[in-house]
């Protein structure tokens, strides 16, 4: 999941490696470390400044309630079913998770953008690279959760502020 | 030995090369060595090949040893120990196929034993884990396994019994070899019967077939080198036809054989042995030798696998605990520790000790530079380097420095906390510092040793590791391992053979034991058994055990009783039980699940329609009752695996083959002229039970290996029963008209077992309980304080059920013997202010260690149960409110390390 | 680029990968020195937030091994 998010942020999932190594598998540990190092080396230096708002948005996403809920419920949803007794297959679960990951991330990215001074919808669109409709939709969402507010109209354009 | 730090310099310098027995002779080691990497204690030893011992010159190891740990003068010492009981576990030897060399083992390097093959597959083995054949180091394309080498064989040197483990290990080796070569390997196992009778082993056999391991029922004529440099196996197949096939490599699945050392020991102790030189025991006392006070476990008792050996080790501990109950804790010493200094609120004063570990760290990275660097770190007030931080004198010196410098946090940069943290924790405790205010930086195992060719990079990494540890150390808090009182009584659920055994033993150890049974009598399935495979009268012995339980005032027997509710945790369970409509709460410290299983009643082969068709236990009942009608029978047929080893019920019930063979022999004894047939798929008379199988064949019982893929039909022709199947050997259909048909049906667990959900312990797909570890913890659950034994765990015969019943008692006693349980401090902590009582943590915790509580009626809050918590931290990483943190591994402590890494 | 030595934070489970890493040391196996191991009691402890934090601090890669 975190790997997926890294892909969405543009950091790339290859900067995060996950592996299972047992206590007796010294050679496997060496292989994993060697390979991880080689991959990361190939990706070059990571500049946290460049991804500052992306990282902050990722942090908000992963720390957010909604996502943590969905992840925590994975086993229950896929083995014993949801509150309606419907059992989810892995594919369905993954697609719901992906959708939520993306929505939450962009919401948080917009929030970051507003916080950093992009107050008009157009500014936000350029900054986060999303189409107008999507941004408006997510802005409405953010308003609902009291993260941003509509401040005033300026040059007949709405201006938003982070709360 | 205390001085050796296992740096390995001695072995590096030792000029004498010796064949490495641990690598099954496939590689070399030095005359000074450790047997294998994970040896405990990890200390080097010199063997008789040492040049100095032979010529009086060399001593290279002594010259290079950085700690002066070499002592050439060491002599064997004779010790006198006064003991109330003796347990012997001398094991057995492995058959040497070179002795009579029927298979040409000595002639071709590519014929190896299964143990040699294990080493070839091992990453630490002679070929670095690459599957190559010894002769030319080329990858083999085809590997064959030959089963029963030295077992089930009447030839001189071999053993007539079955070793019981080789089928499963050969399957394991074939699967691993196949996985290793990513499927590009042909594997074939040549066998007589595949005996995968252990728990879940049949599934493993099925899996092997699914991944393409070939199984060939055969008799081997010869294995000879072919013109192409390979090995040609000549064999007769199951239809009796002669076949040849070439392989690149042949593995001999060697079995167990008698150990002379073990026999010597037994003779010295006056312990009697059987004709195969195993310690004599009986089914009802499986770990008692013939000499009172001397107990036995493992393969010296009879051939067996790891889980059974581990079960027996616990069983013998239980016997000894009961025998020596009176003198329990009479020799215990208490350790004194100085009073702890309160450091709360004081700013951190960190001391850093950097270990050179002789040359193990100092030789590869710049320790003075690391020391210099450490001095610059915030809150660090003292830094020094030691030659060996772990040596006795340095330990004392560190204690002194802590006092002099008023240190309140200590970091040791040395080897790994996995081996040395407890030692240093003791050191700081001796200086009055809480042991959780100590931190290690692993600059040896994970730095100097693994980056030995780049000193600069290793030094840089070591500095970072020290900085990370110091950063973390500054945030450490003192913690106190809580102690909980233990209710020193046990609840045994199920009054069958295993449950009664557990209760009797615990009572003998002095613990109050509640034995609850669902039905109105004790005894369980054993009430239906006639004789054990060794010929003991089950009813007589069982009656004796029940009588003992009833007479013991430590045992509270509750029949007609069921469990309604369970709460609590290790040391403090409260279980509500209902006896004939009345409920009561039993408080107990541990629970032993012995809920059993029963014989499957089939719905095929005219069972229930014709009185002449019985199950195995129904025949036992007739034998117990001395039913004279049995003498009238002319022809008896046993059909094996009725309802077993099929898709719906894929497991093997382990006991049925021996049971049928035993009863076939009994019928022959009652009436020698009776025709007795056993129709089977694989005859699984494992271990010493093979003797019965041989005896049965000698006495004229006819065994028909039938084609499972073709039909087996039981029908009624007028009044005659008719059994029809296809024999492999005869390659044709066989018809028998028996007047007794015995169906060997599986052992099945109850369809619904409320005990599993009440104690929140898992069941497998077949309905048997899942132990904490199949090999090493066959009686425990992952949940502390709950244990399993008997048929509830898996199908097993009387002797194994008793051994496991005893084992459960000894596992339970590890908790009951103490007044309190010490609980780890490394558990989760819920911030009740942040917690909204959503219950996600309760749901995801695998150990049942978080519950929801509403003590004040202000809404539910999560609460950690330290006694159950394993400190994994999943709850903390998942909490939607981020309301959970882990003690000693707090978010902030980890994040601080992360920041310091940069 | 050839001289670039990344820093990689590695979260290692005490019972599995950390033990495996110790054994690699005992066996004197060699591997790149770029990783900075952090011992945790279980890889389940690794909150994704730790990973983001590592990137924020400027580490070039993260390894989680259980």
- Residues in β-strands, percent of chain A: 5-15%
Radius of gyration of chain B: 32 Å
Helical stretch tally of chain A: 8
User: Looking at the structure, what is the overall shape of chain B?
Assistant: globular
* Distance between the amino and carboxyl termini of chain A: 28 Å
Mean pLDDT of chain A: 86
How many strand elements of chain B?
43
Strand order of the largest sheet of chain B: 7-13-8-9-10-11-12
Label the structural class of chain A: mainly alpha
**Helix content bin of chain B:** 25-40%
Shape of chain A: flat
Would you kindly provide a written description of the structure presented here, covering whatever features stand out?
- The complex is a heterotrimer of chains A (163), B (902) and C (66).
- Chain A has 2 domains: 2-43, no CATH class; 52-162, Winged helix-like DNA-binding domain superfamily/Winged helix DNA-binding domain (Arc Repressor Mutant, subunit A, Orthogonal Bundle).
- Chain A has helices at residues 2-9, 26-43, 52-63, 65-72, 74-80, 90-115, 121-128, 132-144; strands at 16-19, 148-154, 157-162.
- The radius of gyration of chain A is 20 Å and the shape is flat.
- Chain A is mainly α and 163 residues long.
- In chain B, 27% of the residues lie in helices and 22% in strands.
- In chain B, β1 and β2 form a beta hairpin.
- The mean pLDDT of chain B is 93.
- By secondary structure, chain C is α/β, with parallel strands linked by helices.
- Chain C is built from 2 helices and 3 strands.
- A 3-stranded parallel β-sheet of chain C has the order 2-1-3, with helices on both faces.
- In chain C, α1 (17-26) links the parallel β1 (8-13) and β2 (35-40).
- Chain C is flat and about 35 Å long.
- Chain C starts with 7 loop residues before the first strand and ends with a strand.
- The chains are: A mainly alpha (163), B alpha/beta (902), C alpha/beta (66).
- Chains B and C meet through α11, α12, α13, α22 and α23 of B and α1, β2 and α2 of C.
